[in-house]
Design brief:
Length: 191
């Protein structure tokens, strides 16, 4: 499965939620996520822009292989053009965490965030709250075109989107999350 997503940073949450309802989006829920990002001890997954994510909202837990699909631009910059994702549900977050550690994976980082989700047709609108950075909107769909159309419906210009990972969002605000072992609302713990 590939996911196509774009982000809009520093959103006004009350105004955005009103716009979402105005365009006919349905509020699906509010989630408090805990996640751990796993890699081999030599970080060979990170070198290939991939990782394993174990995530739970306290009710449902998933284990996901993610790999960023990138394109090198003429100016040498790397642009994300999608995300390969293979996800399975797991029935126990803690046991799955222990299993991954037992077979040799390491937890590169542990994170917590909050999310408010809306949907309309095949477009998902996630308002994400991460520790120590402003809230942002992530719009995901089956193609960039559909994600961009969802943005336009809300009055956003797709040219103003941020098509990168949460890691790059943090970098924009001066944080290199590779320097941290934990990012929670209570604090950020350096490695």
């Amino acid at each position: 499965m590939e996911e196509f997503e774009i982000k809009f940073l520093e959103v006004d949450v009350p105004s955005l939620e009103k716009k979402l309802l105005d365009i006919g989006a349905t509020k699906v829920g509010e989630y408090d996520y805990s996640r751990a990002i796993f890699d081999y001890p030599d970080y060979k997954m990170r070198e290939k822009h991939s990782w394993l994510r174990l995530r739970t909202d306290g009710i449902e837990s998933t284990l996901t292989y993610k790999q960023s699909i990138n394109e090198k631009l003429n100016n040498g910059e790397i642009k994300s053009v999608g995300m390969k994702e293979i996800e399975v549900k797991v029935d126990d977050y803690e046991k799955t965490y222990k299993l991954l550690k037992a077979i040799g994976f390491i937890a590169r980082i542990e994170e917590k965030n909050k999310r408010v989700r809306y949907t309309k047709d095949d477009v998902v609108f996630d308002i994400d709250f991460w520790p120590f950075i402003p809230p942002f909107l992530e719009i995901e769909s089956v193609s960039f075109e559909k994600a961009e159309n969802g943005a336009k419906e809300l009055g956003f210009d797709p040219k103003d989107s941020f098509e990168n990972s949460v890691k790059k969002v943090y970098k924009k605000y001066g944080y290199d999350i590779d320097d941290y072992s934990s990012i929670t609302f209570e604090g950020m713990k350096k490695k």
